[in-house]
Amino acid sequence: MNPISQVRSRLSCFARLAAFIPLFFPGPEQSVNAQQPDPAGLITIRLEQKRGDNSVTVPQNTVFRNGDVLRFRLISRIAGYLYVVDKGTTGQTITLFPVSTAAGTQNRIEPDQTMIVPAMGDGWFEVSGPSGFDTIYLLVSSTPILIPPAPQPETQQTPQNEPPSNLLPRCNDEIFKARGVCIDSSAGVAPLPPDAPLPRELVPLAKSAARDIILADDGDEVTVKSAPSAKLPLIYTFRLAHLE
To answer: Which distant-in-sequence residues (6+ apart) come within 8 Å of 242 by Cβ?
Structure first.
């Protein structure tokens, strides 16, 4: 089985996701303590696309097509713990980082440490599934959070009905004509609104996690900073746009 096929079998291709892995339940000895983040920033996020044997940085708000092969390159600016969970267009969710192995779960992050997400297979995933936006939740904590073992993935997924047209990615015509690239400005890194619906498993932690972020976008990558009043844990999202 080639590396891409391995990732397909593990992820069911990001938008056609495997069974849900419950997340973010602090154990008795793993409570989440508030900590003031580094004002210089928390995480730098770069989205990369595989083209042949090369890895190319692409705009975070690109609208992708089925068959595109992608990964995230994250660089930590602080010490702490990172969790990444994806809710795909099928409505199902899966943990992308960390992944439990025989050596245990390793998700401690240090300043200037680079992480590739997804943290399984060869670190790439292939886009497929119903058109729409995957919502990827990123949480940075000062203390570890208990993640229960993953259940066995389902062999089949029930496709969602076609989402309303206002929830489908749309190309910005001006950018498309200028660059030949489909860009949807609503895609990419975004704060999690206070009233945003969450997977029920995220609700207990989301009540205590700050959501106020400041974004610094230099075109190739986005640095996520916390608002001056925000403390860890901090939760925010990345909206990955794709069309069938």
So the answer is: 15, 63, 64, 65, 66, 68, 89, 127, 129, 131, 132, 133, 134, 169
Side chain identity, residue 241: A
Spatial distance between the Cα atoms of 70 and 60, rounded to a whole number of angstroms: 11
CA atoms within 13 A on the CB side of 58: 27
**Rounded mean pLDDT for each run of 10 residues along the chain, 244 residues in total:** 42 38 38 56 94 94 93 94 88 81 73 90 86 92 68 44 64 66 92 82 75 89 89 92 93
The parent domain of residue 20 ranges over 3-148+167-243
Domain count, the chain: 1
| Structural domain contains residue 155 | no
